[in-house]
Sequence to fold (503 residues):
Amino acid sequence: MEKITVTICTGTACFVMGASELMLLPEKIPADLKDKVDFSACMCMEECHVDSKKIPPFVKINGALMEKANVPDVIEKLYSLVGQER
Amino acid sequence: MVLRKTLEKSMENSNIAIQNNVTETFIEVDHYQLCKHNQHSPGDVFLSEKNPADGRTITTLSDGLGSGIKADVLATLTATMATKFIAADIPAKRTAEIIMNTLPVCKDRGISYATFTTVDIEPDATVHILEYDNPPYLLVRNNTSVEPVKEDTEFERKNKKTAPRVKTVLHYSNYEARPGDRLIFFSDGVSQSGMGTPLYPFGWGIENAYSFILDRIKANENISARELAHDVVQEANIHDSCVPKDDISCGVVYFRNPRDTLILTGPPFDQKNDAELAEIFKRFNGKKVIAGGTTANIMARELNAPITVCLDHLDANVPPYSKMEGADLVCEGILTLGVVSEILEQGVMPAKENAATRLVDVLRNSDRVYFVVGTKINEAHQDPKMPEGLEIRRNIVKKIVSLLQEKYLKEVHVSYI
Fold:
């Protein structure tokens, strides 16, 4: 099974709205998910334009954008993806 | 096209050839100091200024008698008077008289309440040095110390009753500086460090301090004023077993080849200028910094250079820095610049490393800084749901520019795109 890629946006808006906590995901992730996920960060996904009406912080899980991301939601999504694979 | 020409013109005006085959001299002035142990205020004070009107650089070190706030106030008074009077072309002797008659004299010890060393550098590289009661300065040229010729003037205070009992002597010297010259001056916290220890019962001593400085220069011919001042003070601190027995201060003036740094922050107002910004970035000779996620994405696209975010020095207040080929530092924009401005203002580097401390390091190790500020506004920052305090980019850059010029004596140029 291929590893799930999680990319955290660390741009200004995302950082202020919670990316600083999301960056701790590699440490906070439960042991049973640890080896199934590849974490990385990017400088700015440019999803934060007011007319896009999407709300930061942004995380991309396997390329799919999650807005208003937070640690519990990301972990829940990861579990659901892993569950689907089984 | 227009911006590149403007930037290149400002670089020409400050005499840098893009091909970098012109040797131009920059006067790097820096200092480092440690407070006496358990004091909150240093009793040694540095005051430096570059006057854009007449192109002079003046730097003064004053050592206030004792330590703590009282010494700080006296030293500040002395340093300010010395610097301002010299800048106003008041003759050296008269300057010294005014200071001497203003400062109180310690009734018990019979010595004046503050010392001073003032270094005045004219645009034609003539240097005038005035010294009163500080250890003598060291002049280093081609890795050797040069013995300066000094004119001594003895003084008497107007009020002889309160005059110091020991002789008051003012030393004046001048010389023509050459590229590569260094002038090092320090307070007696340096020369008297280690006093009473088995290794240096009478203190480190001026001659030993000079030898240390010459050794440091021999070991690293291009050692910056900032690094040398720091090394001298730290060495003295070690003699005091890292519990300074007095304020330890060292200032260095170095006639050097300028170190140039380019900082891009903010995307160009018109997307059509993205390519020009990338051209400026590519052609620049010196350190290159990108401060801003969108700006970095533009550069990465135009220069075909991927960005990797480094998650090793995570910080709650400063977004992580990144690496990109061709750039010395890539970081987020406004938040990071805000912290940079705070650090520059306080003058003290925080212990924890992050993108802001790295950028401060680059700036402090630069002589000429070129800002290129993109004026496209990020609408997301104007969203009322966002926390207040996200200063407009222009304002934060202006603040940093003025700190770099006035506090750190750097040469700064700003262009907008």
Notes: Residues 14-22 of chain B have pLDDT under 50 and may be disordered.
